[in-house]
Design goal:
Chain lengths: 114, 111
């Protein structure tokens, strides 16, 4: 089975802290994605990556950055956490453009910024 | 750009049918459907491509009308296990694998 593993299920951080959310996939997938999920808003794309060291902005990149140094690992960074970044963060991976298999999601990290 | 899903929520009794709609103001290359159970990750159900293809998955099927930029998900003879939130996602520029998701439709099946 394809597995996408997010390092933390729950995380509590203080305002202003630098926060790292880690995501690792074990199926040699080309593409990786970070979404945040908020009630009533669905899943919104933050950043994505088609290849190592590549990154593309999604719809809501402000306040976030990403790093992809290895194919299997895609990190989301909150440079200075704020309370409006309290959310569920979902990482996903897929085989590549034109694929027919959809995304595989991780279980999510529920981040609370106090 | 976010596709619009309707209804927002639906409650059914086991064995009844449901239809969930997804529409976009942009020309679509594909529509994806996912289901998310409470506290779990979204799970891929199916992808529909340009060409009005209809696909099926157990008792869950979907259609894609590219002229209307609409897709519908059909759940027939619903089972308790179908409860969850259904998301449609769309690719609008090309098959670039960048999916924009709708806000979701909450489906609750009663015994």
């Amino acid at each position: 089975d394809v597995k996408v593993t997010q390092s933390s299920r729950y995380l509590v951080k203080r305002t202003g802290e630098k926060v790292f959310l880690e995501c690792v996939q074990d199926m040699d997938h080309e593409n990786m994605f970070w979404y945040r999920q908020d009630p009533g808003l669905g899943l919104r794309l933050i950043y994505f990556s088609y290849d190592v060291k590549m990154k593309e902005k999604g719809d809501i990149p402000e306040g976030y950055s990403v790093s992809r140094e290895k194919k299997e690992r895609f990190s989301l960074i909150l440079e200075s956490a704020s309370t409006n970044q309290t959310s569920m963060y979902l990482c996903a991976s897929s085989p590549g453009q034109g694929a027919y298999y959809g995304y595989t999601f991780g279980s999510g990290t529920r981040l609370t910024v106090v | 750009q976010q596709p619009v899903q309707s209804p927002q929520a639906v409650i059914l009794r086991e064995g009844e049918d449901a239809v969930i709609n997804c529409s976009s103001s942009k020309a679509l290359y594909s529509v994806h459907w996912y289901r998310q159970k409470h506290g779990e990750a979204p799970v891929f159900l199916m992808i529909l491509l340009k060409g009005g293809e209809q696909k099926g998955h157990e008792k869950i099927s979907a259609s894609f009308n590219e002229k209307k930029q609409q897709s519908s998900l059909y759940l027939t003879a619903s089972q308790l296990s179908y409860s969850g939130t259904y998301f449609c996602g769309t690719e609008i520029i090309r098959r670039d694998d960048k999916i924009i998701f709708g806000k979701g439709t909450r489906l609750h099946i009663l015994p």
